Amino acid sequence: MGKMALHWQILLGMGLGIALGLTAAQFAGGSALVVDWIKPFGTIFINLLKLIAIPLIVVSLIKGVSDLKDMTQLSKMGIRTFGLYILTTVLAVTVGLVLVNLIQPGNFIGEDTRQEMLTSFGGDVQLKVDEANQTQEGRGPLQPLVEVVPENIVGSMADNGNMLQVIFFSLLVGVAMISLPGERVAAFKKVSDSANEIVLRIVDLIMLAAPYGVFALMAALIAEAPSFDVFKALGIYALTVVLGLAFLTYGVYSFFIFFLGKMNPVDFFRALIPAQLLAFSTSSSAATLPVTMDCVEKNLKVRKDVLSFVLPIGATVNMDGTCLYQGVAAVFIAQVLGYDLTLAQQLSVIVTATLASIGAAAVPGAGILMLVIVLESIGVSPAGIALIYAIDRPLDMLRTVVNVSGDSMVALVMDRTTSSGDTPELPADTPVEL
Ligand code: ASP
User: Fold this and answer.
1) Are the beta carbons of 343 and 111 closer than 8 angstroms?
2) Disulfide engineering: 380 pairs with which of 6, 116, 229, 375, CB 3.0-4.6 Å?
3) 119-144 pLDDT tens trace
């Protein structure tokens, strides 16, 4: 596969993986063979990506922040980034709500399908509901904020679910570095700069395995997929989600990319293809993060200080695709179960879905877990999640692509609308005012 561009190699891997999965499903024991002998290579590939995610966040954030010459630059960037994240998330769920109310996919579900789904997936869903309720138990409104500040950084780094804590610590290191005289941190700066080079090289090396990794992931996914009949029954619901995701990405994002990012949206999406393909195959923004950072830096030419701040935070808190999906799914479930949602309830979906998407971890299936909270907030039984359970994985793959694209769009906009702190270089022994 030497000369082919990476995204073509990945696409080829995906195509061959799907073909293998479909073929294996035709033979008795074929799917089990794929799960036993092919799937592990997909798991190894995802592990490699996860393995490098935390070191990548640490070194690139330290480098990004310590390269800044001005503290106000960082706070300006923080406020604008969060503003854009909230704005796009609210837009996303609004698009979802408008579409689900227009299309009314709940009306296309017959009584038979409804009963079948509720009984087939009731058990799995109960486990999810219990899990979601357990994590929410006894949590005050400010608990998410408390959890951003770790009491032990080694503990935080030991769990990929604690990315925000790692980001917080790396920011602290970066801020301390720029507030000290240059000569006193010069040695550490050199070390962190070359650590950054090494980590980026590891990402490149891992990407050499991407075509084989996605091949294994897709083959296993197809081999383990439920029967096609399920997809047919939920077709209109899935179509509503897909339409919403497409409108958000190619309509709303293109607007931001063109007017604020000052870039042709076609070029933007072309630059992002490797990250999008990986998001699709892994269903995890966190696992895709190393590649997203790579594409945004090399192809979109976004500054290091911007991307190393915007992307890791975005992967964990900015999930537009997930939020849109939660809006559609919540109203769809209410429609099928015969709840008549008032305008106030739909507005509360905007708020809870926004918060739920911020709280969702960047891993497969996190969105459906947080849907429990959205449903409970509008008084709809979360057992209704059984209705959409069967088709969740393909939709998860698509919404992850949107999540990753949304983060990259914000990185581009932030790059093009802020300057790189072009204040004159300070003498090495001058501490920077905080
Ligand atoms: N899989 C999604 C992500 O990692 C989250 C979700 O919607 O389940 O971005």
Assistant:
1) no
2) 375
3) 777 777 777 777 777 776 767 778 87
Structure tokens that stand for 135 in this block: 């994590």
CA distances from residue 83 to 87, 89, 91, 289, 414 in whole angstroms, order as listed: 6, 10, 12, 21, 11
Q: If you measure from the C-alpha of residue 424 to the centroid of ligand 1, how many angstroms do you get, rounded to a whole number? A: 42
Residues 106 and 335: beta-carbon distance below 8 Å: yes
59, two tokens: 């070194």
Matching residue, tokens 């301390």: 176
Closest CA to 353 of 335, 380, 327, 376: 327
Which string of b and e fits 345-359 if b means at least 16 CB within 10 Å? bbebbbebbbbbbbb
Alpha-helical runs (H) found in 338-391: 343-359, 366-377, 386-389
The rounded Å distance from CA 223 to ligand 1 centre is 21
Q: Is 417 exposed, middle or buried (0-12, 13-18, 19+ CB in 10 A)?
A: middle
- Written as one letter, the residue type at 372 is V
Per-residue pLDDT tens digits for 227-266: 666 677 788 999 999 999 999 999 999 999 999 999 999 9
Tokens standing for residue 231: 């997809």
The DSSP 8-state label assigned to residue 340 in this structure reads -
Mutation to probe ligand 1, out of 160, 363, 401, 402 (largest number of atoms < 8 A from CB):
363
Instruction: Please report where in the chains the tokens 């933007």 appear, as a residue.
Output: 268
**Nearest CA among 82, 90, 98 for reference residue 353:** 90
The structure tokens listed for 242 are: 């897909």
Amino acid at 272: L
Alpha carbon of 396 to ligand 1 centroid (Å): 6
CA-based R_g, the chain, Å: 22
- The letter for the amino acid at 406 is G
